Amino acid sequence: MEKKHSPSGLPFLHSDDFLRRSASKSIRTLDDDGSGDHVKPHIKEMDLFPTNNRSLSSSSFDVNNGLNLLSSTQGVSRTSTEKKPNTEMSVLKFELERLHEENRRLRSMVDQITRNYNELLGQLFMVVQTQALANNNQQLKDGGVNGMSTPIVPVQQLVDPRPPSYGYKRRELSASSPANNRMEAVSTEGDSRTVQVQGKRLSVVEDGIDEKSDQRWGSMADDQSKNEEQVSEVALRKARVSVRAISEVPMISDGCQWRKYGQKMAKGNPCPRAYYRCTMAVGCPVRKQVQRCAEDKSILITTYEATHNHPLPPAATAMAKTTSAAAAMLLSGSTTSKDGGVPPSSSYSLPYASTMATQSASPPFPTITLDLTQGPNPVHYIARPPPFPSPLHDGYPMSAPDKPSPLPEMQMVQQQQRTASMVETVKAAIASNPNFTAALAAAISTIVGAPPTQTNDGISATINGGVPGLPESPQLPQSCTTFSTN
DNA sequence: CGCGTTTGACCAGCGC
DNA sequence: GCGCTGGTCAAACGCG
């Protein structure tokens, strides 16, 4: 019988879990046969000392030979006391100390590489930003965007404070852990606070192998990082990512295997809402809801929740990264309070805002909606300051082209990381599903090169300075990507 | 027969 | 406290 999937009851693999499991596994490996390859997918630290592993294991093998041991550790103990009282133990201890020292040294190297990487990213961002601003100025001169100023996403809204690569594996986008990137069909979850956001705080995690890898940040970071990670984890579990796309098929193929576990008639929508659970791995917390839009039956609304805790095929990884990044953006604080913040204005009103307004209940979780139904150039992102103090948002608008940003370099770096992450996310979505190709291709163009759109508070901005080399495209005054929170 | 879907029932949260 | 709604469960059912 299947139990409820309460967040606390799920076998989530946290970063600490990974490390502990890997560490314990490595210890067992050393005692057993010395093959540390098993833990490579989790921790490459094992790769740092292959010879040492062999030396330790071979020692165990040597002392165990012919002793009919109950365990390798017993064999080591008896051998040490009977044959080589202290010398071998001392050698082993010395070897262990040496390994620890080497481990520290290698970690230091990783830190240094990370810093260099961030520095280079910052330089790259500055170049791209300059080009984008110049482009915006040119477009304004040409009469673009109603003569509005050109707000740019505040750096801190785009940036994840954490380093782009702190772990042992290549990192990619994910909101993972996301534990819950919850997505909600906007058409059925009205009255939610809605914003249009240019990515804020895109979490950079690894490879999509473990969507909970977001938590791995704490594995090598300090306690503060761990705390932030925990906070992020909790928030992401409540986040949803909704994708609106025109599709005739009952369910958009996203590369994952799903099992339908329920169907309900949702209020305000004649079309039933189907509930699916990821079946690619036992205990995977990811679920999704599929429902057709009440106003336009051709629009399929797919709402994702949580993050996969298992390896994904490339197509599924791409989609997972998309939703995860979107959820991370949402939860990073780029939200607008319907009661406390500035209400959405016409400058960035949602194409389906009226639908949302018909609903009386706010969605229980923050929701980000990726609207892929708005034609060839559907997406523009508008960031708004969070209604609460956020370390990611200190109120520095980068909207003045002629005014250099007062942000520190690190924030620049982080913004660059987020911008690149967002682009990668959209590209991943395109790769994962042909149905999204047209809309998302336009999205990429918009993100990278579109003239910014002003919001009514003057702080929000479109993403600028995206990935070099991608084509520019004019921006429609219509929003496609929205973020709604409650 | 196994697996996935269907569908009514159940539960929890929320507003009145 | 009651009703509404969203979300989930699990037995029944269908299909290959």
UniProtKB/TrEMBL annotation:
Q: Which residues form a coiled coil?
A: 89-123
InterPro entries the record matches: WRKY_dom, WRKY_dom_sf, WRKY_plant
Q: Which UniProt keywords apply?
A: Coiled coil, DNA-binding, Nucleus, Transcription, Transcription regulation
Alphabetical list of Pfam families matching this protein:
WRKY
Location relative to the cell: Nucleus
**Gene3D superfamilies, sorted:** WRKY domain
Gene Ontology molecular functions? DNA-binding transcription factor activity; sequence-specific DNA binding
Mention any one GO cellular component term assigned to this protein in its UniProt record: nucleus
Q: Where is the WRKY domain?
A: 247-313
**Per the annotation, which location comes first and is thus the protein's main one?**
nucleus
Protein's UniProt name: Class II chitinase
